[in-house]
């Protein structure tokens, strides 16, 4: 049963993702119409540089006045692939006010203002979908929001940034240092000229905030996410990881506390065992591991970025929103009923791998072990090696709180026999 | 905004999955109500043996008259976890006729009668959801139907049967033979007393039919799926696979032909490279690899069976169907608009690994190579080894059609110098 009035789509932004969305809307028009139950047409494309030639897009559709486009009143769905906070936020709000639903790929905006945007969407009875905002083409938002809607999620742990995974994979496989691996990533186009958002974990933190909110039916803001980049990971860390049967990944981890009364969200490099499914995620791929009460351990794997993969996610949302519109329904909105508080990083409980440079003399191990014990941090293994009066101690702990570990390290630094703390790395996935 | 009239659920079947669905509906009632927007209550449970004690289920809800239960007229959603064709099919049809939507975990029924059941659901304006029918807890039906609705899927390749993956993984890791590994699977509860449905590939074939239908928006019946079990896989095959840098998995493969005008669906053991993400799927886990035009390569991984994981999938569907009901909408129905024909196995193009027992004398390789050439099958590598007048030839081909390969093997068998064809195994995932 096909209705004949086409659904009208306004595209905001026509860069790598937007041009691919427009291309697929044209080349796959028949398939989209069949799957939606109505034809869907590109009604306008808002761009910053109107003079650039855009293959396959009729010039009369192109405008620089995005606000006028979303205010037209005949737009069914606004697809926002501009990125950044403004003008995207105002345009999305205006779109809802003028009767459109919205599909967005904007992780920064959703992480910062998701709750407010959902509220406007609900006020106007419209949809806000954003599968493409987290892990590109990988279906993740929909499975977590819908497929696992009858389950209780306890942990979401993932590689959600392809640039940093490419760099870490390169360091792991070639023994390269951070700078060398970053240079290669830049040369190959995997890293931007200014890689800060990726390597300092800002990008992953935005995704962690979105995922934690959805997984735990609570509001988790960007400021709630503990963030540590991966610029200080060294070749020596990878060597240590290998000795542990591990590799190192930049992980976004969202966890429900054991008592179920609070959640945490964090981004940092961590050692994970080679036997863990996330350990074999290579290159710029992303993967997210989800643990729930009933389903157990699930993993979702795929390309986390790029024009085509992101466009695939945008178009999947577009089909869903169009179907909802035809059926007079809306999809799931924000679900924050659980309202669990976000605990600080000090409450996070995990294991640690600590490398210490120490004096090579009797009694050092006893001193160090005493400091751990005084802070309630239980030691799993210790490995001591040394020569010429210098030695190193590698301590792997049992599970301990971040606060206890921080206290331990502060006390260790004050010991005369400890020359320095070479590295502290969390150990996850066991 | 919570409505107060509860949605009523009738549960058909209360075995391993059904009892877990009932348990979670009780223990997570508040969460389900918050996520649905209305409380959901168990209105009746149809069982075969009413005398068995069912913890947490009020005895007055239990009935042996499933038909009367689905005919009550006040049931919002019928959850069918009986399995098999009848009485499940009649009960589902009756449920639609009496105003209920349906959530089913029944792969055999969906594979055989999915189109007819979808037609009845559509006739009555009701939902038919069945995420649990394929790969247990792994969100797969929803991502393929909805997340990838704007993309073009070219291949779905997966490990969709946990029993056979457990057996093959055991053979791979221990060098055990098929029977020994099966015995262990049976002892551990991974294989049923009669393992035919699993080891002969019937279970995987039903899932392949369902997946192919959804992925290609076409009808693919059980009879359209080529099926080869894994009972003849030997320790020698695993040794051959290792030499190739491969392992052996029982794969369900649904492919669009290169010209896009037809599809194929098949289940058989195959060698896949150790570097392929499916190669590292261990034990009874399932994983499905999806390749599409825009998204590229995606993989979905998790437990493919078991009471709790299957219940998770059922409850996810239950939440979705309840939401639809409150919103007066229905989810996506059958999508078979593409109506692509299913090509026979002979048209499938892949690579082959063939082990031949041959006479150890000059000219044998030339004879064998000539037979391949005459049938248009190009050889990638040949490895010859032998002693005492007996020799073996291992031939790995380039991509060739199944028909061409079959013709080649028939001709090889007629050669005096070929004593026997020890094994033929497809090579996938390259």
Automatic annotation (TrEMBL), chains A, B:
Entry similarity comment = Belongs to the homoserine dehydrogenase family.
* Gene3D superfamilies recorded: 3.30.70.260, Dihydrodipicolinate Reductase, domain 2, NAD(P)-binding Rossmann-like Domain
Task of the protein: Catalyzes the conversion of L-aspartate-beta-semialdehyde (L-Asa) to L-homoserine (L-Hse), the third step in the biosynthesis of threonine and methionine from aspartate.
- Hey, which pathway is this one from? Amino-acid biosynthesis; L-methionine biosynthesis via de novo pathway; L-homoserine from L-aspartate: step 3/3; Amino-acid biosynthesis; L-threonine biosynthesis; L-threonine from L-aspartate: step 3/5
Q: What is this protein called?
A: Homoserine dehydrogenase
EC numbers on record: 1.1.1.3
ACT domain residues: 353-426
Pfam families, A to Z: ACT, Homoserine_dh, NAD_binding_3
Q: Which organism is it from?
A: Streptomyces qaidamensis
Query: What is a GO molecular function of this protein?
Result: NADP binding
